[in-house]
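Recall the central idea of this unit: under ordinary conditions, the amino acid sequence of a chain determines the structure it adopts. In this exercise we apply that idea directly, starting from the sequence alone.
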Amino acid sequence: MKIHILEMPLDFGASRHGSDMGPSAIRLAGIKDRLESLGHETVRYFSPIQINPQEYEAMGNPKAKYLAPIVKANTQLAEEVERAASCGDFPLVIGGDHSIALGTLAGLAAAYRKKGLKLGVLYVDAHGDFNTTETTPSGNIHGECMSASCGYGIPDLTNLYFEGRKVDPKNVCYVGLRDVDAGERKLMKEAGVTAYTMTDIDRLGFNEVVRHVLGFFKRNVDVVHISFDMDCLDPMYAPGTGYQLPAGMTNREALLLMEEMCDLGMVRSAEIVEVNPVLDVRNQTAALAVDLAARLLGEKLY
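Accordingly, the structure predicted from this sequence is:
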């Protein structure tokens, strides 16, 4: 498979600095060599953006902080993602904070709309990222990226790259939720997303949740994008994230999910976000990100 690795050193969408160094940490953890050892070809490996540090930009709207640079960076990302997906190659986007999902999904939607393919999204995250400027408690755009991609929120975000929603919320499936704001919870239910929280995982068992997820995509879509936030994992396994919430997924559960999604045969793109080397321990979170990407792209234990 031909893979385009797109680094997005962007942390404008989050409160804590450091995730802009995530792509470097993942690169140093050996992602390129690891994927090429599986027989894949790295067609391109670069960052499509050139931006000023956050300290040199105006915050702007307190309900959508750093809107202008985030829109600019994600528009550039969308162009590169569309180019890769249109060629039938695999865009692998490395963040950065989760606001980069805006550009990834916009580029994928543009490519698959031309091909007449229905896009589904597996959103692996502790958070819903489904706030709008009306509900956000923080004003951080990484918490508004999925709602905007589904058509909810301010036009600057919902119409990024092209006018209109990028993915039907009924084709979005969450796994690993454990911190959802009241306003976004209400909007997620109204929009019709499917969600499996950590409580669902405890009640049903992880294997059963994965079975439901696989069936969801088989029934509803043609291609799948995986958006993986490292804070879905328990801090025991991934300390290097901006939001360290206890009672998350284990590393083994996350690796199994990636293996099963690989076997599904429908995943055509992915992004891994919120690796923060400032908070990491011996780069173990970045190393786990590489393990996850490798399992998604075909690595087997035996």
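The longest strand covers residues 2-8.
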